[in-house]
Each structure stands twice: as structure tokens, then as C-alpha cells.
Amino acid sequence: MALECAELVVGDVLRGAALRVQRGEVVALTAPSGAGKSTLLRAVVRLVPLDGGVVRLDGTDVATLDPRVLRRRVGFVAQRPVMLPGTVADNLTYALDEPADLAAALDAAGLDASFADRDATRLSGGEQARVAIARALTRKPEVLLLDEPTSGLDAPLAEAIGRHVRELAAAGLAICLTSHDRAVVTGWADREQRL
Ligand SMILES: Nc1ncnc2c1ncn2[C@@H]1O[C@H](COP(=O)(O)OP(=O)(O)OP(=O)(O)O)[C@@H](O)[C@H]1O
């Protein structure tokens, strides 16, 4: 077991929510718009405080982990990721202690290696979304949380990212994504968990 959320409460948004994602599997977290999917993912990495419940990473309550360590072990890619000023390479290596394989991270996110030197803040929304995935991957996470990973991507690009997501799961990552796109839920995920 990699990630387990039980009885999560966040204000009036989440009431007793639960989620389990094991190593090697892709789980699609689904619910109507506004039901709290993003809030749940943000609570996992402690960007939103919990009013109740527990998030465990390999059995350890994440509340006991240093947030920096937690966010390295659990990569979170927001629906509208924020690019820091500087190049894509700067964004990929920000706050990283060890050298990273930027080319591999860019490739897994569907980006050409030449993107490393581009100004990150001037990329298109879809390109920024892919840089955000690459940024999470340079931290070699055990769990990857993707909030609406295909928003801003055209169908061929979304399919390419989907193939990479399947490869990452096959390599042992535990992946949870949210999506309103049924093609993503049925095509990328091993199973669907309704919130
Ligand atoms: N920072 C915030 N402050 C106040 N309310 C918020 C905040 N973020 C989200 N909410 C509210 O929490 C509820 C759940 O939002 P959330 O984004 O988690 O839902 P979601 O299921 O991911 O929705 P969608 O599918 O539309 O992205 C919504 O009513 C939203 O307005």
C-alpha cells in the first residue's frame, strides 16, 4: 500500500472522504464538479489542512512528515500549475538537492529536450501543464497526483501523456488523477474511485 486516505474532513467540502492507491496502479478519482476532488489531492500534500481523518504514506501519517519531504515523495500537479520565473530547467531543478535527469523528465511529460532553455512563464497552458508533470517527476516521487492532467491538451498530446502515465505506473509509481474526461478515466486508469 502506498497511499491511504481515511475519513478526511475539510470544512464543509470533504466529509469522511476516502482514497486508496497502491504501487503500480492508476486510480481515477471522480465526482461531480465542486465535490472536492482537488481539495482531497491538496489535503494529501498538506496544502489544505485537515479538520479530521488521516493520510498515510506506506503506513506513516503524513502529518508527521516534513512537508518538503512529503512533497518530494508525493508529486502533486495542480490543474493550473504555477511557473516560477526563469527557464524550464530552472523550474525543474528548483529546490532539488540532487542533479536530475531533465531529459527523461521532459520526455515522460511529452516535451522535447529543447524545452529546457525556454522561458517557462511564456509557455502555453498545455506546455506549462507538461512542465509541471516533468517538475514532479524530477523529484522521483513514489506517488503522483494529477489534477485534470489533460486540461489544455489536444487529443494526441493527451494520449501521449496517458501512455507515459501508464509506463510510470508500470515502473512502480502509485498514481491518482482526477478527470471529467471519460476517455481518460477508462483509458488511463486501472480503476475508478468515486468520491
Ligand atoms: N481556496 C478555497 N477557498 C474556499 N473555497 C474553496 C477553495 N478551494 C475550493 N473551494 C470550494 O471547495 C469546493 C470543492 O472544490 P474542489 O476544487 O475541490 O472541487 P472539484 O471536485 O475538484 O471540482 P472541479 O471538478 O470543478 O475541479 C467548491 O465548492 C469550491 O468552491
TrEMBL record:
Q: Write out the GO MF terms.
A: ATP binding; ATP hydrolysis activity
| Top-rank taxon | Bacteria
Recorded hits in CDD domains, A to Z, give: ABCC_MRP_Like
Q: What Pfam families would the database entry show?
A: ABC_tran
- Carries keyword Transport? yes
Residues forming the ABC transporter domain are 3-195
Which keywords label this protein? ATP-binding, Nucleotide-binding, Translocase, Transport
| Translocase keyword on record | yes
Q: Which InterPro entries match?
A: AAA+_ATPase, ABC_transporter-like_ATP-bd, ABC_transporter-like_CS, P-loop_NTPase
The name this protein carries in UniProt is ABC transporter ATP-binding protein
Origin species:
Solirubrobacter phytolaccae
